[in-house]
Amino acid sequence: MTPDLGGQIQRAMLDRAAASAAIAWIVIAIGVGLWASEVKRRRFWIWFLLSFVTGPVAWYLIFSRLGIAVPVSVRITCPKCQKLTRSDMPRCVRCRAFIDDSSRHRAGDLARQAATMVFTARRLLGTTRRAVDAARQDPKPRSGR
Ligand SMILES: [Zn+2]
After folding, report:
1. Is residue 105 predicted with pLDDT exceeding 80?
2. Sign of CA dihedral 120, 125, 130, 132
3. pLDDT for 112-139, tens place per residue?
4. How many Å lie between the centroid of ligand 1 and the Cα of residue 113?
5. Exposed site from 21, 77, 91, 109, fewest CB < 10 Å?
6. In this structure, what are the phi and psi dihedrals at residue 37, rounded to the nearest 5 degrees?
7. Tens digit of pLDDT for each residue in 27-76?
C-alpha cells in the first residue's frame, strides 16, 4: 500500500498551525493576566483564566471597562477629582493627579514606574520562553531521515 504523503503533510501542517495558535492564545492570556495584575492591580490568575476561556470578552473588560482596583483598606478620596483612589499610589488612579503634592515624590515615582516596567517585561519574557520551550518538546520520536 502507498502512504498518502500529501494528506500526511497537510495533517502535519494543520497540527503545527493548531499548536502555534494554542501557544499564542496561552501567551496572550499570560500577558492579559500580567497586565491586569501590574497595571490594574487585579488578580493574575482570574484574568489569565478569563482571557483563556472568554478571549475578547476578557480583553474588552480589563482594557476598557475596569479601572484600577481600589481595595477598602487603601481607599481614600482624591483631593482633585473627589473620586475614590488608592492611598498607596502616588497618583490618583482616575485623574492621575499627585495625591501627595510635594514634588520630592516625582523622581521616585518615575524610577518606580521604570522598575515595574522592566520587572513586568522580564516576567513576561521568562513565562513566554518557558511556554515555548514546553511546546518545543516534540512528543513524537523522529525517524532519523
Ligand atoms: Zn483624582
Report:
1. no
2. positive
3. 788 888 888 988 889 888 888 888 886 6
4. 19
5. 21
6. -80, -40
7. 999 999 999 999 999 999 999 999 999 999 999 999 888 988 988 888 88
Those residues with Cβ within 8 angstroms of residue 40's Cβ, 6 or more apart along the chain or in another chain: 62, 66, 67, 68, 69
Q: In angstroms, what is the span from residue 39 Cα to ligand 1's centroid?
A: 17
Question: Residue 75's beta-bridge partner residues?
Answer: 86
Domain boundaries, the chain: 10-69+102-136
Selection from 106, 40, 75 nearest residue 83 by Cα = 75
What is the Å distance from ligand 1's center to 70 Cα? 13
User: Taking the model in full, what pTM does it have?
Assistant: 0.58
* Maximum separation of any 2 CA atoms in the chain, in Å: 83
Give me the helices (H) in 5-103, please.
5-38, 44-54, 56-60
Say which amino acid occupies 107: A
What's the gap in Å between 110 CA and the centre of ligand 1? 19
| Grid coordinates of 17 | 498551525
